[in-house]
Structure formats: C-alpha cells, structure tokens
Amino acid sequence: MAEKKPEPTAGLVVTGMLGGFVTGRITKQRPLAGVVLGAAGIAAGRRWYRNSGAGTTALLTAIYLGAFGASHPLAKKIGAWPSVLTSTAAAAGAARVLNDTK
C-alpha cells in the first residue's frame, strides 16, 4: 500500500492570517476577520491532527495563535502590512516544515 502524503496546510495558514487581515481591513468588521482566522485555523488544525498527531497539532496551534498575537505589537514597530506578512510567513513556514513536508 502506498504511503499517504500529508494534506498541505501552509496555504490554510496564509488564508487565515492574511485573509483575516484583509477581511478586517476591507469590511472594518473585526469579528468577521476573526471568523476567517478561526475557520482556517480549525481546518488546518484538523489536518495537523490527522497528519501529525496531537503533539504537533498543539505546537502548530500555539505558533499560529502566537504569530497572530505577535503581529499586533510588531505592527507598532514596523507597520501593519510588514507585520502581517512576517507573522504569516513564520506560521506558514512552521506548518510546512512540521507537517506538510513529512
């Protein structure tokens, strides 16, 4: 039987973080931005659990939420877009390394 390839998740991380930011910017509705962030995070988390187990899921969830949280104070130092792009790259990179390339 062929080995099952992990379902990619870096794209979901980008969708959640960058999509949430853009949604908030365009609609001026922070709760709607949170829905985008949360829905993509839940979808990624389900894949992380199926592909890599509970430990990796917990770690990647902490990275996802931590990157989101860190983007806010970072934005005060480097600006909103650079902050969102940096934090998104960090979280998506972690998902790629820890889950997607297994």
List the helices and strands and how they pair.
Blueprint: H1 10-27, H2 30-78, H3 80-100
Report the major sheet: none
Number of E-type strands: 0
Order of helices and strands: HHH
Q: Helical content, roughly?
A: over 70%
- Give Rg in angstroms: 14 Å
Overall pLDDT, averaged? 96
Model regions low in confidence, pLDDT < 50 over at least 5 residues: none
Please give the count of helices: 3
Domain module count: 1
The percentage of residues in β strands lies in: under 5%
Look at the helices and sheets and give the structural class. Answer: mainly alpha
Summarize this structure briefly.
The protein is built from three helices and no strands. It has about 100 residues and is mainly alpha-helical. It starts with 9 loop residues before the first helix and ends with a helix.
